[in-house]
Amino acid sequence: MPQSKDFAIPIYIDKEAMLDILASIEDGFSFVERVTTLQSSASNIEENIRSLNAELTIPQIVKIGMNPAKSEKSTKEEGRQLEADRYHTYGSLVNKMRNRLAEERVLKVLDFKTKDLSEIELSDFVEVQGLFEPNPFGEIIRRMQKLLEIVGESQHIQVPQNEAQIAELKAQKAKIKTQEQRQIIDSEIEDLVKKKDSLKNEQMSYDILRHWLKVFSSDVFQQSHRARASFVVHTTTGFQLKAVTWVYIDSLRDTSVSEISFRPYRLIGKVVNKINGPKDSFKLFAGTGLGGLSQEFIGKLFKNLEESINKDNTMQFPKLLTEISGPSLEILPIAIYV
Known about the structure:
Strand content: 25-35%
Oligomer: single chain
Structural class: alpha+beta
Order of helices and strands: EHEEEEEEEHEEHHEEEEHEE
Number of strands: 16
Helix content: 25-40%
Shape: elongated
Number of helices: 5
């Protein structure tokens, strides 16, 4: 159960899921409460101010239309009545949801008291804390793409420089009369032409590699609809397990994914899959087109890609990891926070 005064600051929220959960727990609820203060000598005021009429057009501050049912009994009233609207942000609603799930005793926190996954069932609400590592399978694709961008930019600079050097040598050759000096310049021009042709051939090879990596990236991150990123969460509190989770990039506070990567956060969500022991595993490319290929074939495919990009062994690539062994959970995330 969340400790008292343990206020979360979210970096990711699935707003629709969070609102559905809160509405289900509260049987309809208000995001804004009208607070009425009545200064009187003797009065008894009873207010029912709950309603569910959300105005969700404001991105960060949420207000609900008010339709309060109010009964009032007063013998003598003096002074004035003060009214104010209380607003909730999506961040404050995350705290409200955590507290309500804990109060309902349906939130299972994996911490130092957790010995195994025997008490965790599918569809349970869980909270885990750990280091968020970008999906190793997706990370190697992303890193290859970045390296190819750098190499490509370098080649786009080198080829024009090379052509400019050839043009300059040809101009010098036209002014030289001795055969020996002309032969020396011809040799230099020949070397530069070979280098230029080699650079252009490399450009063509890298263009082909970029095309295939783009295909893989579109498949793994499903960019054709709504871009997602997957993470492996390595727990840091007690019981050691790995949790696999997917997030929608446009729901992250930092859409570059750098804020969440390789940093410890807490995750609240619902369990959709569970692996108890090391004999079973999750496939990190499950649900993608690559999921129909064997692990051995994918290993050879990416080995060839790596060798094509890293011909002189000057670049470092993460180890290709296509599966996560148990004990592990697959969690549908509702919120990620610190």
